[in-house]
Design brief:
The protein has 504 residues and is α/β, with parallel strands linked by helices. The chain folds into 2 domains: 267 residues, Aminopeptidase (3-Layer(aba) Sandwich); 139 residues, Alpha-Beta Plaits (2-Layer Sandwich), CATH 3.30.70. The protein is 35% helix and 21% strand. It contains 18 helices and 21 strands. A hairpin with a 2-residue loop joins β4 and β5. α2 crosses α16, α3 runs antiparallel to α6 and α16 crosses α18.
């Protein structure tokens, strides 16, 4: 607390609220300060951060606490049932409004064998030699004359340690120029985002007074595929479901019992196939009920400069699902996705058996108009209509003897979708900031297809929220060889400087 008072006292004597920076100055300062971000970024990326391994998160939390305290913030750990949230806070003289910034610290699990480098937590600088071929170059090259198209490869490089580091450096830049935001800053750091933030909703309710703010800015996600400055005004929510079709108590010889013992892998395949038609539309009655697209919404979506032919070519498919007419319109509807399946053994371990079970992991992306409990009920009712006896555990012998088709059904409601009006005060503020930073109108997206745990803040704190993404869209987020383009790292600094100096 004493350090905070000293810091603010010094700032109040020498910093000027009215001072600002133009686009060229922001760009120049961001590039000059890039050397500092390269050093901190490398250090931060070297810390493993799989949320499934709580011990890995502690060094990350200590790193963040130290980094924010260095910039005059107080920090506090907000306890949850598992890993805490970290709240960093800095008040500014004369400010009567507060902006809450959301960032995540954890990353997705890794399979080191799939990474084309020493390891996913050994940050590696690479340059492209030909299409899809990247050559490692010395990290020290960044300190000489870096190329915007070089990339830094590591887990969480883009999702989302890059934005954290650039936000910190942006704070340093405006401090060096004697500029203070004219609003107070709170930063909430989530340690379990990649697990669906299961403990965040009750924590937001418990600590709502500490988290109170006037606006919420999410520092996460990729830009539009054009890689131009982007603002995203919503995100889908998520429900996860596990389906386990039960077969024989133990795997059975397919020669002895084929044509006699029902195969759970076949049954699960048939069940999943019954949920969607050949055009990718969910066939479950009522699944899309309540979702309407207004002319205003269509106008917002049509202004997004998507090149859908390019999207299909880059991903590698010929024809999209026919849920909607365009990509932007498609993510306005709830989805039903099979994210993984398992039954028996395959490849070198394949064996001639009838599996004892077949497992499918499903995610349902929610939109603002869809109630998660209702969606779960719809899916359950459909499964019942296919003749299944539904339980939430493995079946007993008596149940196996009585019921022909048995499925174990478990689900978890993550969080709801949110959507902030495009025509709002927070929208005007963020647009003005990005125009000052880049000299052009940002791309406006009504919502993103992905999910972020923001609805608990929106609903509990009654605060408008918008995502300000900065990373390159082709970053291999959640996958092996995740990366961040060096040019996007620099532009992320520019973005955050522009936000911090924009008057509330």
């Amino acid at each position: 607390m004493i350090n905070k008072i000293i810091f603010i006292t010094i700032l109040s004597l020498q910093f000027i609220f009215s001072q600002t920076l133009n686009m060229n100055e922001i760009n120049t300062l961001s590039r000059e300060k890039a050397q500092d971000v390269f050093k901190e970024y490398r250090e931060f990326l070297s810390l493993p951060n799989d949320a499934n391994k709580p011990d890995e998160l502690e060094p990350n939390m200590l790193w963040c606490e130290k980094a924010f305290k260095k910039r005059g913030f107080t920090t506090e750990r907000l306890k949850t049932k598992r890993l805490p949230l970290i709240l960093a806070e800095r008040e500014h003289p004369g400010a009567n409004k507060t902006v809450l910034f959301y960032i995540q610290i954890d990353g997705q699990p890794v399979d080191p064998s799939k990474w084309f480098q020493e390891g996913p937590f050994v940050p590696t600088l690479k340059k492209q030699t030909k299409k899809d071929d990247w050559k490692s170059i010395p990290w020290e090259s960044l300190y000489d004359n870096y190329d915007d198209d070089w990339r830094i490869f590591a887990r969480s490089a883009s999702d989302a340690k890059g934005p954290i580091n650039t936000f910190l450096i942006a704070l340093d830049i405006i401090a060096d120029k004697g500029i203070l935001p004219n609003y107070n800053i709170k930063v909430i750091m989530d340690m379990e985002e990649e697990m669906g933030s299961p403990n965040l909703p009750p924590a937001v309710k418990r600590y709502k007074n500490k988290l109170k703010a006037d606006r919420l800015v999410i520092l996460d996600g990729p830009r539009h595929p054009s890689n131009k400055p982007t603002l995203t005004f919503g995100a889908r929510g998520i429900v996860t479901i596990q389906l386990k079709v039960q077969g024989p108590k133990f795997p059975q010889h397919s020669g002895h019992y084929g044509n006699y013992v029902p195969n759970p892998a076949v049954r699960l395949s048939q069940l999943i196939a019954s949920m969607k038609d050949d055009n990718g539309k969910v066939t479950i009655p009522g699944y899309y009920d309540g979702v309407t697209i207004s002319e205003e919404a269509r106008s917002i979506m049509s202004a997004v400069p998507d090149d859908e032919d390019k999207i299909r070519r880059s991903i590698g498919f010929s024809k999209p699902d026919q849920v909607a007419n365009t990509y932007q319109e498609s993510i306005q509807y709830p989805s039903l996705n099979v994210r993984g399946m398992k039954s028996g053994w395959v490849e070198k371990e394949v064996r001639t058996i009838i599996p004892s079970f077949a497992l499918a992991e499903i995610d349902v992306r929610l939109v603002k108009e869809t109630d998660p409990k209702r969606m779960v009920k719809l899916i359950k009712n459909h499964i019942k209509s296919e003749g299944y006896y539904i339980i939430d555990r493995d079946p007993t012998d008596s149940e196996r003897a009585k019921y022909n088709k048995i499925i174990t059904f478990n689900h978890r409601i993550g969080y709801l979708a949110f959507r902030t009006p495009v025509n709002s005060e927070i929208a005007d503020w963020l647009r003005a900031a990005l125009i000052n930073g880049f000299g052009e109108e940002p791309i406006i997206k009504r919502t993103s297809g992905g999910s972020v745990p923001i609805s608990p803040f929106v609903n509990t704190l009654n605060v408008p929220a918008v995502t300000v993404p900065t990373v390159n869209p082709d970053n291999n987020q959640h996958s092996p060889n995740e990366n961040l383009r060096v040019g996007n790292l620099i532009e992320s600094i520019r973005t955050h400087v522009a936000l911090l100096i924009q008057p509330y």
